[in-house]
Design goal:
Layout (H helix, E strand, L loop, with lengths): L2 E7 L2 E6 H15 L4 H9 L10 H13 L3 E3 L10 E4 L8 H15 L4 H16 L4 H10 L7 H7 L8 E8 L3 E15 L2 E8 L4 E6 L3 E8 L10 E8 L12 E6 L3 E8 L2 H9 L5 E5 L1 H19 L1
Antiparallel strand pairs: 1-2, 3-4, 5-6, 5-9, 6-7, 7-8, 10-12, 10-13, 11-12
Helix pairs in contact: 1-3, 2-3, 4-5, 5-6
Length: 313
């Protein structure tokens, strides 16, 4: 078996088998995609370790070696474009369903401490590891279990581009109330909360600040880059309180009572600090109702579900 010496460091040589290296190179090339014999010859010629004594017979011999090792490789035919195709191979990562469950638990714990961009990167690492199993069932479980699995990443990356902030953008949105609709918005920022990603933006439909669940954004239809738009950094919420919550209620400076009778009080609030406002709403217990906007009602429901999920653990 031929061997060559590669100098990795000064005064330190490492001997490798050219036959073994060539076999691994052809294996990885075929795992990337199907290849013709001419393409495989070219790959070997362009590699500084395998570029000597390369021929079609060399490739055929290496293919037979891979078959002997347990690979199922289809013969080049007119039907497959005269290319070698790996149909299956024994070089898979062995992970059980129980192992995957543990990995997903660890992944979930890490994600709670990371930014959304780091979560996306960690998702990619996990999926690459699971893909090595070539187990479609485990791969699908992993894809459906990681954060943002319901988000179109191409849309997310477009929304994360600072150049579109302050610009008018038309999107297709899947509203829980109105179904699929086109919305004109001005994106402001993305934030990560309750294992979900939200886009804070100005909504022309509501003529106010809105917070959209990014998983419901189906398409970015166009972006007006010719003009920059300004808008106020707040939104309005109309809510009602009743029963015990009415006792000694006093509106804050950013709130206005717009209706009141013996059974309920309706309030319009200008939300400047969303966290503080949600904490106040929760103090009413089950004695409140969000009238509008829809996005805030949906967000509050998501938050309550998340709290319930934590208690169930």
């Amino acid at each position: 078996m031929n061997k060559i010496s590669i100098n990795f460091k000064e005064n330190q040589d490492s001997w490798i088998s050219t036959t073994g290296y060539r076999t691994l190179l052809i294996l990885t090339s075929l795992l990337e995609k199907e290849r013709s014999i001419d393409e495989l010859v070219e790959i070997l010629k362009n590699n500084k370790i395998t570029n000597k004594s390369v021929s079609k017979d060399t490739v055929r011999l290496t293919i037979n070696t891979l078959k002997t090792a347990g690979c199922s490789i289809s013969r080049p035919t007119k039907a497959n474009g005269y290319k070698y195709v790996i149909e299956k191979h024994p070089f898979c990562l062995n992970i059980s369903s129980r192992d995957l469950k543990v990995l997903l638990k660890v992944h979930e714990s890490f994600c709670k401490e990371l930014s959304w961009k780091e979560v996306v990167s960690l998702n990619n690492v996990l999926l690459k590891v699971i893909s090595l199993t070539e187990n479609k069932q485990l791969i699908n479980i992993a894809k459906n279990s990681i954060p943002f699995s319901d988000i179109n990443l191409n849309i997310l990356y477009q929304l994360d581009n600072p150049s579109i902030y302050g610009k008018k953008v038309k999107i297709k949105y899947s509203s829980p109330k109105f179904g699929k609709e086109d919305l004109d918005i001005i994106p402001q920022k993305i934030y990560y909360e309750n294992e979900k990603l939200y886009l804070q933006c100005y909504s022309y439909k509501y003529k106010n600040i809105a917070v959209l669940n990014i998983s419901r954004i189906l398409e970015i239809k166009n972006i007006n880059i010719s003009e920059e738009f300004k808008f106020n950094d707040f939104y309005e919420v109309i809510y009602e309180i009743f029963s015990e919550a009415m006792i000694a209620f006093e509106p804050d400076n950013n709130e206005e009572i717009i209706y009141k009778d013996n059974n309920k009080i309706r309030i319009k609030a200008k939300v400047l600090n969303e966290f503080c406002f949600i904490q106040k709403i929760f103090l009413f217990g089950n004695n409140f109702k969000i009238i509008s906007p829809d996005f805030f009602r949906e967000k509050l429901i998501d938050k309550i579900k998340q709290i319930k999920k934590e208690y169930e653990k």
